[in-house]
Amino acid sequence: MNPINADLHCHSVVSDGTLQPETLAARAKTNGVQLWALTDHDEVAGQRRAREAARREGLDYLSGAEISVSFAGLTVHIVGLGFDADDATLVKGLAATRGGRGERAHDMARELAKVGIDGAYDGALRYVGNPELISRTHFARFLVESGVCPDTHSVFRRYLTEGHPGYVPHRWARLGDAVRWITRAGGVAVIAHPGRYRFTPTEEYALFTEFIAHGGRGVEVMTGSHSAAEYLRYADTAIEFGLCASRGSDFHAPGESRIELGSLPDLPGRLQPVWELLAPRVQRAAV
Ligand code: AMP
Ligand code: MN
Ligand code: MN
Ligand code: MN
To answer: Most exposed residue of 24, 25, 199, 216, measured as fewest CB within 10 angstroms of its CB?
Structure first.
């Protein structure tokens, strides 16, 4: 049996992507995606549009969000899948997580002004689709537009990250809270792109064990953030911890994202796909 083409991680204008949910659904369809989830950062405001667009395109759909969490002094992303997007505790938790973004953005702009980059707040705001969700990505696009850097990846190498101008530390949600908001709303929590975090082996072990203790069930193995070596490494990690595996491009924008929607290699056959846990939560495409 052929594995299905599932893409369970991407972003729309409702967070830091550049495409509308409907445009993403059409692009997923064109690229052969069969099961899709829109996972905007800290926000479910795009879920209804994504779900309806998926129905029109004939795609199976799972609700999604990518929650920003602070753990051991670093930011970790937890993807939630298949939850009830109207769940009051989840919606309130996401609103609280988004809460500090405006003030943080003003602080980032002040830090950038100190190195001679003026007008960054207003500049970033021009790229924002959702006023509650101003992110570093919007600043990165402004820095590219102003000619400070040639592309967004070089922005994150030289600015906006720890030790570089424009970086402002921020306290996000707690790991246990994020996992519980997702699971109590009927969904499954997944550790996003574990290869991206600069944890020591001990801290990474703590992340996985605490995540599981709180009720987390999955880990992204195939993601646009991982190298081929990391695909193998986190396949082993999934098996070691008894976690299901997920697959998602983390697509944000044409010409900006390394991996196109629906175009990652399949999950290794030895892993249990997270969507097997979520079968009852899938909105099936009309046949
Ligand atoms: P924020 O939630 O405001 O901290 O912004 C985080 C977002 O910045 C991520 O979701 C990515 O879209 C983007 N980002 C972070 N690091 C990088 C990087 N090294 N290269 C490209 N984009 C990045
Ligand atoms: Mn992003
Ligand atoms: Mn992420
Ligand atoms: Mn993402």
So the answer is: 199
152 lines ligand 1 (CB under 6 A): yes
Tokens of 246: 């997920």
- The pLDDT of residue 2 is 74
Does the CB atom of residue 9 touch ligand 1 within 6 A?
Answer: no
Atom of ligand 1 nearest to the CA of 134: 3
Which residue lies with its CA nearest to atom 3 of ligand 1? 135
CA 45/CA 92 separation, integer angstroms: 12
Regarding beta strands 188-191 and 74-81, do their DSSP bridges make them parallel or antiparallel, or are they unpaired?
Answer: antiparallel
Q: How far does residue 1's CA lie from ligand 4's centre (Å)?
A: 29
pLDDT tens figures, 85-96: 999 999 999 999
> What is the average pLDDT score of the chain?
97
Structural contact between residues 52 and 38, judged by C-beta atoms closer than 8 angstroms: no
CB atoms within 10 A of CB 221: 32
Relative to the CA of 252, which ligand 1 atom is closest?
Answer: 12
Query: 168 with 111: CB under 8 angstroms?
Result: yes
Residue 103 pLDDT exceeds 90: yes
Strand partners, 218: 190, 244
User: Which pair of structure tokens corresponds to residue 136?
Assistant: 């570093």
242: which 2 tokens?
A: 């008894």
